Amino acid sequence: MINFKNYLAEQEEPQGKPLKHLTHLEDNVLYGGNEGVGIASNHLEDVHNKLLGKNNSTSVTTKYDGSPSIVFGQHPQTGQFFVASKSAFNKNPKLNFTPEDIAQNHGHAPGLVEKLTAALQHLPKIMPRNGGVYQGDMMYTKPDVQKGKGMYSFTPNTITYSAPENSAHGKAIKNSDMGIVVHTQYGGGKDLGSMSAMPLSPKQRDKFERHPDVHNIDPTIEVNPSNYTSEDQKAYLGHMENAKRIYTKMKPEDLDALQGHGEMLERHVNDMVRQGGTPSVQGYLDHLSAVNQKDVDKVKTAAAKEKKIQAHAAVAKQVIDNQDSFKKALQLHGNLQAAKNVLTGVMAKNSPWMHTINGEATAPEGAVAVDRNGNASKFVDRAEFSRQNLLAGRFRAQQQQQQPIQEDYGPSHVTTFMRANPPTAGHEAVVNKVLDVAKTTGGSHSVVLSHSQDASKNPLSPNDKLKHAKRAFPNANVEVASEEEPTLLHQAVKAHNNGVQNLHVVVGQDRVGQFQKLLSDYNGKQSKHGYYNFKNINVHSAGDRDPDAEGLTGISGTKMRAAAQSGDTATFHSGASSAMSEKHKNDMMKDVQKAMTVKEDSDDDERRQAAMNAPETPLSSALKKYTPFGTVDELGSALHKGDVKGAILPAAKLATTAIPSFKLGTLASGAVGAAEAIRDKNPLKENTTGAVGGLGFNTGNPAADEEAIANYVAKSTADADTRDNVLKGMINRSSSPSSQKVVGFKAYEPQNGATSRSIAAERSKNN
Fold first, then answer.
1. Any bridge partners for residue 541, and if so which?
2. What DSSP line would sit under 16-71, residue for residue?
3. Virtual CA dihedral for 513, 518, 524, 527, nearest 10 degrees?
4. Residue range 298-321, pLDDT digits in tens
5. N or C: which end of the chain has fewer CB within 10 A?
6. What is the DSSP string of 300-356?
7. Neighbour tally for 602: CB within 10 Å
8. Of 589, 384, 413, 440, nearest to 497 (Cα)?
9. Where are any strands of DSSP class E within 167-217?
10. Where are the domains of the chain?
11. Would strands 444-449 and 478-480 be described as parallel, antiparallel, or unpaired?
């Protein structure tokens, strides 16, 4: 039996069983066979009778579009009150007992901090005397409520809820500091890790205390039989009669043919809803073929491709051989869906709220029916929900305020990791790819920004970057990585801990293979980043990136920062996201200018002062003797600019004569990077050796993790002889006219006979 507890199980491991998305009523047919038909039929009949005013044991509650989801209650072991996001069920749960805990655990998400702080302050006032652990959707805190035209309104997520001032809800909103819909209770275990979720029973709901500071919204649907018109009843009964007629013609084993097809069939149904079509056997075969083609395109060898093709052929043959069973099942599914839509529409009439999205009227999100056996079904009009999604896209595109971070993850999750300092039109293309993949897979998504900040490449603070990124990508769930989770691998662990089974990552074309290997190598392995184990890991290309090209593909954070620094408003505006207004582009440019100016000056002053006060070392002595620079950082920065006479030649002399065995780290990476660029006749690219790679070099890629950095440095700090040969070759080729065109150097003019040969000779003498 597909029961409620099965729907709730987020993962097989004993990490607690938080609330998970429920299935659509009609989809019970696709997953549960004949027993699923029974569950769907019983739920429809019970809801039908409830709307007629007849009582029964099935509970029916409204689905509210709240945010964020709050887990709260008395800790089962200590009895201490806590609040948490869905991270309460992580392997390393983030439980908050004090405001300080909230700041430490969620400080990177100011919106979430505000909601959790309100919950920590007020929810103890309504806790049942018998304690317990619960989950609910936050609807509003005091600052969220707007008053106008005799109504109180709030918008927790996508839908705006409005109630008349003089209504029961209106009066409660006026007097309260927060509103919440509690829908789930946890039990059956001695600790959070062993507890399971179940719907909040009416009996337990009644045990919550009343307090004016908390508007504890009861989602139970109040039935008004007059809303269930004779026309509605006739339509419902007609669809049910059709469903019964189809089902009686089916053999008991017909639905067995669908075994294993549930997920794919549901995806086909959802595609048809979005396209306004009708699910069919041929449509399903076409869907399977398209999915298979994508799978074939992912593998490279002929043998692997043939294996995929043969597997698809076997699945397609099974559908064709049982096409009559599939046809009847889809017809049954369609009639049950139509009957459900009638009842869903009637329940919407009973809502005490007015629902809008960007001022346009819409229906409630839907309802959930739970019977005495714990079987649960979702009553949502899929076509209306699809329309709401379109409205939501327009709505979010106009939103400029920062929204709380959503820690909602589904079985499939799509993410990217980027510096976006500042966000550009190039980043916008990456984000759009994330949204496209999420739509295709039906998964959740996140756009994660690095937490790093420095004067040159990361001038914007994490908070400023988040502010501008939300304006640049209004349709995306954007967040900043915490200092404790600074890399893509850490984000993969986070996704795993949130129940993700299929991970999708979007990166630049040149990094697809690298990150597919990196993520796959750590799958199922404990590392310093943590542990994750996904069923599938897919890395998607965000498209080719050439930081020096014209048009969209040439946009980079480096060029944007340079434009801001030089006051080139036209270039900066042309490189910003198309979703940003002129005002927001100007605001972002000013923030970048301010951050780069202030921090550059401050950093330079601090660096010079530190150099002056630092004790003399063999390295610092060698730097002063052989180069015009006082620190390795200064020399490395000059190397990045490709200054042959001012940096590369002194670096060569330093490396080959003064301290040939010393591993110079950042200096070496910069020197060899410059050398290789000239050797290969490639323009120098943005070279990031810090925490995160920039869009200009590796679109949407995270920083190299510690291993990758170590490998790069090891390569860069080869033995002195090899490094000397590279540098000598670089120097020779930098003098040629062709290399001058490539790297933009002026012709090299040796000083005092300091040719590559003389350098080599000097090295031999000193050795």
1. 507
2. -B---PPPBGGGHHHHHHHHHHHHHHHHHHHHHHHHTT---S-EEEEEP--SSEEE
3. 180
4. 888 999 999 989 999 999 999 999
5. C
6. -SHHHHHHHHHHHHHHHHHHHHTHHHHHHHHHHHHHHHHHHHHHHHHHHHT-SSEEE
7. 11
8. 413
9. 178-187, 196-199, 214-216
10. 4-56+224-287+319-349, 64-216, 409-582, 616-684+706-766
11. parallel
pLDDT for residue 514 is more than 50:
yes
How many whole angstroms separate alpha carbon 506 and alpha carbon 512?
8
- Rounded CA-CA distance 761/707 in Å is 37
CB of 615 closer than 8 Å to CB of 631:
no
- % of the chain with per-residue pLDDT over 70: 71
Measure Cα distances from 321 to 317, 330, 332, 515 in Å.
6, 16, 19, 41
State yes or no: pLDDT of 404 exceeds 60.
no
Q: What is the pLDDT of residue 6?
A: 32
Continuous segment of H or E residues that includes residue 5: helix 4-8
Q: Which amino acid is at 264?
A: M
User: Model confidence over 178-234: pLDDT tens digits?
Assistant: 999 999 999 887 888 788 888 898 899 999 999 999 999 999 998 999 999 999 999
Strands 412-418 and 502-507: parallel
Question: Could you tell me the two tokens for 404?
Answer: 């709380």
540-582 pLDDT, tens digit per residue, is: 888 765 433 434 444 567 788 888 888 888 888 888 888 888 8
3-state secondary structure of 680: coil
CB atoms under 10 Å from CB of 536, counted, come to 11
Burial class (CB in 10 A: 0-12, 13-18, 19+), 230: exposed
Q: Residue 418: enclosing H or E segment and its boundaries?
A: strand 412-418
* Cα–Cα distance for residue pair 328/255, rounded to 1 Å: 9
Percent of the chain with pLDDT strictly greater than 90: 37
Q: Between 512 and 391, whose confidence is greater?
A: 512
Structural contact between residues 411 and 504, judged by C-beta atoms closer than 8 angstroms:
no
Q: Is 138 helix (H, G, I), strand (E, B) or coil?
A: strand
Rounded Cα gap, residues 766 and 759, in angstroms: 11
The pLDDT tens digits for 341-365 are: 999 999 999 999 999 988 888 888 8
Local structure of residue 256 (DSSP, 8 states): G
Whether 557 and 421 have beta carbons less than 8 Å apart is answered as yes
3-state secondary structure 704-753: CCHHHHHHHHHHHCCCHHHHHHHHHHHHHHHCCHHHHHHHCCCCCCCCCC
Cα separation, 734 vs 644, in Å, equals 8
Structure tokens at 357: 């999205």
Query: Is the Cβ–Cβ distance between 368 and 377 less than 8 Å?
Result: yes
Q: Are 379 and 369 in contact (CB under 8 A)?
A: yes
Main-chain phi, psi angles of 669, to 5 degrees:
-60, -40
Average pLDDT over residues 492-498: 85
Pairing relation of β-strands 526-527 and 530-531? antiparallel
The model's pTM: 0.54
pLDDT band at 725 (very low <50, low <70, confident <90, very high): very low
- Asked if omega into 68 is within 30° of 0 (cis), the reply is yes
Angle between helices 425-441 and 462-472 (to 10 degrees): 70
What are the structure tokens assigned to 29, written together? 């047919």
Write out the H or E segment, with its range, that includes residue 275: helix 262-275
What is the total residue count of the chain? Answer: 767
**Cβ(216)–Cβ(208) under 8 Å?**
yes
The residue with greater pLDDT, 194 or 98, is 98
For domain 409-582, give the fold.
Rossmann fold (3.40.50)
Contact 360, 396 (CB under 8 A): no
d(CA 33, CA 196): 26
